[in-house]
Design a protein that fits this description.
By secondary structure, the chain is an alpha+beta fold.
């Protein structure tokens, strides 16, 4: 009997293509999550709670804004950050979502577009997990079309008055500071809105069937007065928030591989130990076909993620290439999670096993940071030179 693989990515020996540092970071993150987080995830998912007490521990491990330089950030490579996202989402998409929003949206918006005073005030605290950030772009009526957002900021002397609503905001209900994007007379601009600012309130979204171990909220701005020092001075136009989204999308295309890999690992373990008709179900041809198809998907998705990570570290990664990664890897991860659930049979509908939880979470991942349709049309525009976004 051949020894079975404990890690589906061993099929192509992908770890051999990583540096010692990359392997060490991946192993460190995986070990921390196995000991501290994984045992409690089913309970958090079932109860719909996010473990806020974990945030300082994530900061201590260097996971918050880990790919940013200075201000208490770890300054890792893009591949190292991607591998951390892979391990985070292998445990739960909600956990990776928290880290992505904290580092690639909230912190990156300040790091890339903020003043030195804003960076000094917020980045060290966010990196340490002493403060939590969120990113307010999506609105109830403008998800895929942020250019027509209704949130507006109007000058009033030396201040700004903000009015509007943001929706589906990860971390919103627990954030100490929100990066809020608004229309102004001179185009879209970003503002830092601290919790406690008069007129700024949040409302958590309940009854979720996906990303249950994550906080998703509505941001409400009712005549919120901010000084001009709250404006991100280097963010002009829609390019500002879209560049932040590309940072988050990059983490997703690695994270989705983690969810798929974990689903396949659960199915492999079950298939080699579950006895039916006098033999392990993994010995049946139909089960081996499912496992092989999904292993091919997980391994090719991981290869794509690593390739795009190398491009990002080389400074040559293009937005449409990120769209290729998110579109393919999330789509394949959902297919993998669903197929692996079928191998688990009835046992697969409980929180004892991860594939159905991953499948439910990935429905949100498929939608946020650009729906699959948006990424498909982004790639189509690059292929044809023709835009399908406008009439």
């Amino acid at each position: 009997m051949t020894t079975p693989l404990t890690d589906p990515l061993d099929l192509l020996d992908l770890r051999s293509s990583l540096s010692d540092t990359e392997r060490d970071i991946q192993s460190t993150v995986a070990g921390f999550l196995a000991d501290r987080v994984r045992p409690s995830v089913p309970e958090w998912f079932d109860s719909g709670t996010f473990p806020r007490e974990l945030v300082p521990e994530l900061g201590k491990l260097g996971l918050l804004g880990m790919h940013l330089q200075g201000y208490g950030c770890a300054g890792t490579s893009a591949v190292e950050y991607g591998l951390a996202c892979m391990e985070l989402e292998a445990v739960d998409s909600g956990l990776r979502s928290f880290v992505s929003v904290q580092g690639s949206l909230s912190m990156f918006s300040v790091w890339r577009f903020g003043s030195e005073e804003q960076k000094q005030e917020w980045l060290p605290r966010l990196a340490a997990g002493q403060a939590i950030g969120c990113f307010g772009l999506t609105e109830p009526d403008h998800g895929s079309d942020p250019a027509h957002m209704r949130t507006r900021a109007v000058r009033d002397g030396g201040d700004w008055i903000l009015n509007g609503t943001k929706m589906w905001i990860t971390n919103g209900g627990i954030a100490d500071v929100a990066t809020v994007w608004a229309q102004t007379d001179s185009g879209i601009r970003g503002f830092l809105v601290p919790r406690g600012t008069p007129g700024f309130t949040t409302r958590d979204i309940k009854n979720k069937l996906s990303l249950r171990a994550s906080v998703t909220s509505e941001l409400i701005l009712d005549d919120v007065r901010l000084p001009d020092s709250a404006r991100l001075p280097l963010a002009e136009g829609l390019r500002g928030p879209l560049s932040c989204l590309n940072e988050a999308r990059y983490g997703i295309l690695f994270g989705a591989v983690g969810a798929a890999r974990d689903s396949l690992q659960a199915a492999l373990e079950y298939a080699t130990t579950r006895i039916q008709f006098g033999r392990p179900i993994g010995a049946f041809q139909l089960t081996q076909q499912k496992l092989t198809d999904r292993a091919l998907s997980v391994n090719t998705s991981a290869l794509l993620a690593l390739h795009l990570g190398r491009l990002k570290d080389a400074g040559t990664l293009r937005p449409e290439q990120i769209s290729v990664g998110k579109l393919n890897n999330v789509r394949e991860a959902i297919a993998t999670a669903r197929e692996c659930r079928t191998i688990l049979g009835g046992s697969g509908i409980t929180t004892e096993y991860s594939p159905l939880r991953h499948s439910a979470n990935l429905e949100s991942v498929l939608t946020y940071e650009g729906t699959s349709e948006i990424h498909l049309l982004t790639v189509g525009r690059k292929l044809t030179g023709l835009s399908a976004f406008t009439g």
